[in-house]
Structure formats: structure tokens, C-alpha cells
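Quick sanity check, Pyridoxal 5'-phosphate synthase subunit PdxT:
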Amino acid sequence: MKIGVLDLQGGVFEHIDHLKKLNVEVLRIKKPSQLKEISGLILPGGESTTIGKILRKMNLLDPIKEEILKGMPVWGTCAGMILLADKIQDEEDAYLKVMNIKVKRNSYGSQLDSFETYSKINNISSKKIPLIFIRAPQVIEIGDKVKVLCKLDDKIVAVKENNMLATSFHPELSDDLEFHKYFLSMCRVK
């Protein structure tokens, strides 16, 4: 199995490190043709506006969307969640528009408001795992088929819909591998 990590900006290497710890082959995705070589794709955290502009400039937006709609497993962390969302609060347009969620940018404040907490998330881990929030979005609306995996203070911070997984927080910034294992299990089902 080979997993792709979108390599345009953001937390690329942290995801790669976690995948390598799980003995998974990784491909840094920079062009559309590489999408045919992978079993799943991670959209890392970073600056969603910047990543969105680069996706359009490099003609990656539509090919990624097409592969997701065909069933390729995808996981968006933080900015990646924003890229997947069908709607973004107070914005007329969104990016990939594949996940039936509406997100609110920077729901947890600025960089200075970053924090770490722990939560037990059913289906992901039997123990509490670290959740690291950095200028994190939150899901403010979900469609009928979207499953809420985690809430924090009544805010939705992890969701799954079919072949798509999205987290407001950054599992790749902790030493915990449980979310990466969960995503790999989604990729094996494909």
C-alpha cells in the first residue's frame, strides 16, 4: 500500500514520519498523474487559502476531487478539513466541495490560542489520545451521511463521510499513531 501526502505547503513531513513509523510507503503528491499510484491521500494542515491557490495553479484541484468522488480514501487535517468542506462560513466559494460539511475557519482563535487536550474517540482508540489545535476550524453543519467522531465542548472536531475523514486537530504533531492507523484501515477497504 502506498499513501500520498499532498506536498504543497504545511505539515507534510510530520504525516510522512507517522506513516513511515507504520511501515507504509509514502508518495509526496505534487502532480495529478501521481494520484493513480496511491491507495489514499492525506491533505495536511497549513494555510488553506495558500494550498487552495496552489491546487488551482498546479491543476490538482479537479483531479483530486475526481479521485475522491471515485472512492479514493482521503483525510484532511485542519486546513485539509477546510479543503474538503462543501461550504465555508462567510465565504461564497469552497475548494474541493466533496464532504457534506460547513466549516468555520479559526474557530479556536489565533496561533497564540493553540492548545493540546486529550480525548477518547470511539472507533479510533480505546485510550485517550492527544488532540492538538492550532488555529483550528470546527464543523458547524453536517449532512445526513456525515458521522461525528469527536466533539470538544460541543464543537464538532472530527467527522467521517464514506471514504472521507476530517479532523480539526493535528494527530501528526503528537507521538500517537492511532488516527494514522485508522486512516490506513480506511485505505485497505478501498
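Posting the structure with no commentary besides this: The mean pLDDT is 92.
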